[in-house]
Amino acid sequence: MSGHIIDGRAQAGLLRARIAAQVVDLATRGIVPGLAVVLVGDDPASHVYVRNKGVQTQEAGMASFEHRLSAATAQPDLLALIGRLNADPAIHGILVQLPLPPHLDAGAVLGAIDPAKDVDGFHVLNVGLLGTGQPAMVPCTPLGCLMLLQDRLGDLSGLHAVVVGRSNIVGKPMAQLLLAQNCTVTIAHSRSRDLPALCRQADILVAAVGRPRMIQGDWIKPGATVIDVGINRITEGDRTRLVGDVDFDAAARVAGAITPVPGGVGPMTIACLLANTLTACCRAHGLPEPAPTP
Ligand SMILES: Nc1nc2c(c(=O)[nH]1)N[C@@H](CN(C=O)c1ccc(C(=O)N[C@@H](CCC(=O)O)C(=O)O)cc1)CN2
């Protein structure tokens, strides 16, 4: 008997359809949400993600602006581009694809984005707003995870959520979002003592460690909801495949519900980017914000 497989592709499709309908509505007022994506360098996975973002932005009826820059781009040139995007009224959302090449200061680059256009939610102002329970731009991957959890479980109040991973992009904002939903939240990480025992306490287990299949089946509390954020490319024999941070087959036998990789959290990340762009556009035009859930 296996747990329910959470279909992130289907959920993301529903969310994108809803966003597209809201974009049609905005068009009747002569408003077109615009998203600028900046990619620096040659990372092959980043090129795929940025291409998918551009395609899905256009499919939703929004304007997509792509800036692909050489790996040798100097910091002042990147900051100057961000300054122009900040000043451009046709652009409501700005995203700098991560990781950046090592010679660039990611903190300074993300800090240069106008917080109102920061659809990644990585600017310290948005981080602080989220942490203090105020309206913020919420990072796309944790927002997508929360939507999947609410769709599956409804009210999350009182549930014990264990987030494995403490990154600024996923682990920390995920913990903030779950806390705001009245979960009891534990953040675990590579230095946590007895990680398996911590994970076994979780009604909700979010794995965001970046280590292929690290979370074992016997670390899962029977009936728990498991959200696997990991996207790890591994080579098995002569083929490369994508696996999460959770040993899916073993975990699925114990969990009540689990996200697969691929087809779980990943598609929600881009759908939530479109949702954030729509939100930023509505805020810029003083319009009511769209409801966030699919
Ligand atoms: N500025 C940002 N950079 C990065 C982010 C981010 O949210 N903002 N997240 C990741 C990459 N990412 C989006 O940028 C992303 C990763 C994965 C997917 C996705 O749909 N994955 C598919 C599998 C795709 C594949 O075959 O590789 C899935 O899981 O089904 C979308 C977006 C790091 N950088």
UniProtKB/TrEMBL annotation:
Choose any GO biological process term that the UniProt entry carries and state it.
Answer: L-histidine biosynthetic process
Give the GO molecular function terms: methenyltetrahydrofolate cyclohydrolase activity; methylenetetrahydrofolate dehydrogenase (NADP+) activity
Catalysed reaction equations from the record: (6R)-5,10-methenyltetrahydrofolate + H2O = (6R)-10-formyltetrahydrofolate + H(+); (6R)-5,10-methylene-5,6,7,8-tetrahydrofolate + NADP(+) = (6R)-5,10-methenyltetrahydrofolate + NADPH
Chain residues that bind NADP(+): G165, R166, S167, I231
Q: Please give the pathway this protein is involved in.
A: One-carbon metabolism; tetrahydrofolate interconversion
What EC number(s) does its UniProt record assign?
Answer: 1.5.1.5, 3.5.4.9
Q: Which GO terms describe its cellular component?
A: cytosol
* Keyword tags: Amino-acid biosynthesis, Histidine biosynthesis, Hydrolase, Methionine biosynthesis, Multifunctional enzyme, NADP, One-carbon metabolism, Oxidoreductase, Purine biosynthesis
The segment(s) forming the Tetrahydrofolate dehydrogenase/cyclohydrolase catalytic domain are 6-120
Show the Pfam families listed in the entry.
Answer: THF_DHG_CYH, THF_DHG_CYH_C
Q: Which region is the signal sequence?
A: none
Q: Assembly and partners?
A: Homodimer.
Q: Which family does it belong to?
A: Belongs to the tetrahydrofolate dehydrogenase/cyclohydrolase family.
| Identification of the protein by name | Bifunctional protein FolD
